[in-house]
Amino acid sequence: PAAGDDFGGALFRSSPDGRLLAQIAEPTGANDPSTTVAVYDLSTRQLRFEPIVLDDWVESATFSADGTRLLLDLPPDGRVIAVDTADGRTVAAVPGVGVSAAEQVPRGGGIATVGDSQVVAGSSIGLVRVLDSETMEVTATLTAPPGTTNTFRSFGDVVIGSGTNGIVRIGIDPPSVLWNQSTEDCGNLLVLAATFYCGDDAGSIVEH
């Protein structure tokens, strides 16, 4: 079944075991700050719960390592919401980092699950938080250059972040910003082993 209609765009994420598919859809109207969130069981091709509607846009999403939670990062300040994938309940919420009107940009922060128990959440201003995926407590806070933490992809115990101003590599054990590089707009990011690829809205792809 469809999660709804009249969507302007959608973000898809799969659970680590491949059983669940999350659809995070924005309405067609550019001035409508809402998002519909649906989770499908791919074995039955059915919705796990009735789609929920949030009163804000969602910039990024990831499943917890065990697939029991869907974690959503909301712009511009990196507010994080954890949704139970069995029934759609909001089971935890982490306040944003605080972004002034002068600092606000259209894009928010990325979010990625690392290992079995940690989540890395970004923001539009480059402030990055490491969270315990069970308690949702902040265990570490890092500062990366603004415009490098809009998208996150994890690989092993590191996270590659990217955005309009470049790329950043974040280590988890211990939490640290390992390096950053000013480069082309890297709004779309794919990480494969030791290589990652940056794509922009114009369709260009650059290998790093």
Describe this entry's structure for a reader.
The chain has 208 residues and is an all-beta fold. The protein is 0% helix and 51% strand. It has strands at 7-14, 20-27, 35-41, 46-47, 52-54, 60-63, 69-74, 79-84, 90-94, 111-114, 118-121, 127-132, 138-143, 151-155, 158-163, 166-172, 175-181, 188-192, 195-199, 205-207. The strands form five sheets. Strands 1, 2, 3, 4 and 5 form a five-stranded antiparallel β-sheet that branches. A four-stranded antiparallel β-sheet has the order 6-7-8-9, with no helix packed on it. It has a four-stranded antiparallel β-sheet with strand order 10-11-12-13, with no helix packed on it. The protein is built from no helices and 20 strands.
Q: How are helices and strands ordered from N to C?
A: EEEEEEEEEEEEEEEEEEEE
Radius of gyration: 16 Å
The shape is globular
End-to-end C-alpha gap: 39 Å
Share of helix among residues? under 10%
Give the tally of β-strands: 20
Roughly what fraction of the amino acids lie in strands? Answer: over 45%
The stretches of 5 or more residues where confidence is low (pLDDT under 50) are none
Q: Given the structure, what is the number of helices?
A: 0
Question: Structural class, from helix and strand content?
Answer: mainly beta
Mean pLDDT: 86
Biggest β-sheet description: 5 strands, antiparallel
Task: Give the gist of this structure.
With 208 residues, this protein is an all-beta fold.
SSE map:
Blueprint: E1 7-14, E2 20-27, E3 35-41, E4 46-47, E5 52-54, E6 60-63, E7 69-74, E8 79-84, E9 90-94, E10 111-114, E11 118-121, E12 127-132, E13 138-143, E14 151-155, E15 158-163, E16 166-172, E17 175-181, E18 188-192, E19 195-199, E20 205-207
Antiparallel strand pairs: 1-2, 2-3, 3-4, 3-5, 6-7, 7-8, 8-9, 10-11, 11-12, 12-13, 14-15, 15-16, 16-17, 18-19, 19-20
